[in-house]
Each structure stands twice: as structure tokens, then as C-alpha cells.
Design a protein that fits this description.
It contains 7 helices and 6 strands, in the order H-H-E-E-H-H-H-H-E-E-E-E-H. By secondary structure, it is of the alpha+beta class. The chain has one domain. The strands form 3 sheets. It has a two-stranded antiparallel sheet with strand order 1-2. A hairpin with a 2-residue loop joins strand 1 and strand 2. The protein is elongated and about 75 Å long.
Length: 244
């Protein structure tokens, strides 16, 4: 299957190989990150205490969680795939401009703070050299705040990681199950299962990134798919214009 894909890519006039290399590196880094997260959670799992306070019907539940600390090195592993995905977009923009027969000097994938700023960013990043159809495609991708949130997040995280340490955090998305009644309807609230084991822990981005509730691993996998789709759209446009 890989040989077939390689031959198909070789048959294209504009295969966008450099972007694909960066995406593959991002995927490899994400795999390393997943292994490290699993290792940390297995060797130093979160602990919790849960207790029922009071008597029915005046009952409350106290639930306290102690999370493991995540080393700074783990945040660096998040920055690696982000940098590669951001680079894949820039390389794709350059390939698209070259496919249009123009110079790629000073060309970058444009990002804007809002929709109204996008035309100016397209010119500033020299992306307009790729042609009107490429500009129209970029507008559809909506690389601005309030547009494609994940696409914009790739850019913001890339910048953030260059100026701050990405210290990851963990949050609990499920607590203990509390049964309020017995089968016969008797109101006897009690905690079911192991109260010291949270139902689910997910690793998320730091609060000051604005992505605090975003699952790190899931977000990175979705970002890979997004960038793959963008590069495929660039490749299709370039080779369509080349008559392929």
C-alpha cells in the first residue's frame, strides 16, 4: 500500500512532500507523548477520597483529588508536534506559490486576529502570489479567531511554546458513582466502587493558553487530521492547475 501511495505521489507534479514529512514527524511525537503520559499515570496515579456527609435527605458528598505532577519535559513533547504542523502549513503555502510560478520568498501560511484582518495578512505573508483560487480556499479555512478554532490554536500554541513552558495539567471528568436508593426504594446513599479511583483523568493544556479544557492528545490527533486535509486541498489545487 505504501509503495502504491509513493508511486501516486511521484506521478504528481506538485506532491507537497516537505509538508508530509513534517506531518509524519508530528505523528511520531504524539505517539511519544502518549507513551509518556501513560507511564506517568501508571507510576504515579491520581488518588482520591470520597465520603458521604450527613444523613438522608440532607446528604452531601466530599470528593478530593490529588493529581500527579507533570514534568516540564512533557510540555516540550506537545510543542514538538505543534511546531511541525505549523511548519507543514508554511511549507504547503510555499509549494502552492511555487506551483503558481511565483517566488516563495517571504511566503507563510497567513493567520489573522479576525476575519477583517485576513486580506491584509494574506498580502503581508505573500500568500496572494498563489492566486485567487488559493485565496478563496484560505478564506474557507478561516484561520482567524472566531473562525476555525483548532486551526487558530495551532498558530497560538506554536507562539506560546516559544515564549512560555507548556506545563500540562490533569482534570477529572468523572467522579465516584453514588447510589441513593436500594432496590426496594430505601433511601440509603452510598458510594459504589472504589472511591480512591477517579472515573477518568484527562491531560489538558495550561489555563493561560485559553485551551484549559482541551484534551491534549485528542486535540493533537485532530490537529494532524486538519493539517493533512489542508495540505491535500493545496495539493489538489496545484495539480488541478497543472492539468493533473
Amino acid at each position: 500500500m505504501e509503495k502504491e501511495e509513493a508511486s501516486e505521489a511521484a506521478a504528481l507534479k506538485f506532491p507537497f512532500v516537505n509538508s508530509e514529512i513534517k506531518i509524519k514527524r508530528a505523528i511520531r511525537h504524539i505517539g511519544e507523548l502518549e507513551i509518556d503520559i501513560d507511564k506517568i499515570l501508571n507510576e504515579n496515579p491520581p488518588t482520591a477520597t470520597a465520603s458521604i456527609i450527613g444523613e438522608y435527605p440532607n446528604v452531601s458528598i466530599e470528593y478530593h483529588i490529588i493529581m500527579p505532577g507533570f514534568p516540564a519535559e512533557l510540555g516540550a513533547l506537545v510543542g514538538d508536534p505543534i511546531h511541525n504542523l505549523r511548519a507543514a502549513l508554511d511549507l504547503g503555502a510555499c509549494d502552492l506559490v511555487r506551483a503558481a510560478g511565483r517566488s516563495d520568498k517571504g511566503v507563510y501560511f497567513p493567520f489573522a486576529n479576525e476575519l477583517s484582518d485576513l486580506p491584509a495578512q494574506i498580502k503581508q505573508k505573500k500568500f496572494h502570489r498563489a492566486g485567487a483560487d488559493a485565496e478563496a480556499l484560505l478564506h474557507q479555512l478561516a484561520p482567524y479567531r472566531g473562525g476555525n478554532l483548532l486551526l487558530r490554536a495551532i498558530h497560538d500554541l506554536d507562539i506560546y511554546d516559544k515564549h512560555h513552558a507548556l506545563i500540562l495539567a490533569g482534570i477529572v471528568v468523572g467522579g465516584p458513582v453514588v447510589r441513593m436508593w436500594d432496590d426496594d426504594g430505601t433511601p440509603i446513599p452510598r458510594i459504589m466502587g472504589d472511591a480512591t479511583q477517579p472515573t477518568q483523568i484527562i491531560v489538558v493544556f495550561p489555563k493561560d493558553t485559553g485551551l484549559f479544557t482541551w484534551n491534549v492528545v485528542q486535540t493533537l490527533h485532530e490537529a494532524v487530521k486538519l493539517v493533512q486535509g489542508i495540505i491535500e486541498a493545496f495539493r489538489a489545487l496545484a495539480n488541478r492547475d497543472a492539468g493533473l
